[in-house]
Design goal:
With 87 residues, the chain is of the alpha+beta class. It has helices spanning 14-25, 39-48, 68-76, 80-84; strands at residues 5-9, 31-34, 57-60, 63-66. One of its GO terms (cellular component) is cytoplasm.
Length: 87
């Protein structure tokens, strides 16, 4: 069983694209919330992400992972695959 992965993005954000590519390359299905120009959605994301308003914001099993740099750091440390696997 795989983890529930959610990512808040803007369509043209290069960091969002990099984060999604990492997940795709790992074969991970994720739910994407495109919040381009939607301040209501951005405020909701910010509340969920401990006040962070930058994109992307990534959640694995409802735990806030952070942004693009954070998910790549987890991958380099060998911790990401464990987070993506449930059970």
């Amino acid at each position: 069983m795989t983890a529930k992965v959610e990512i808040y993005t803007w369509a043209t954000c290069p960091f969002c694209i990099r984060a999604k590519n990492l997940l795709k390359n790992k074969g991970v299905d994720f739910i994407e919330y495109s919040i381009d120009g939607d301040e209501v959605a951005r405020n909701q994301m910010s509340q969920k992400a401990n006040g962070r308003r930058s994109v992307p914001q990534i959640f694995i099993n409802d735990d806030h992972i952070g942004g693009c740099d954070d998910i790549y750091a987890l991958d380099r440390q060998g911790k990401l695959d464990d987070l993506l696997t449930v059970g």
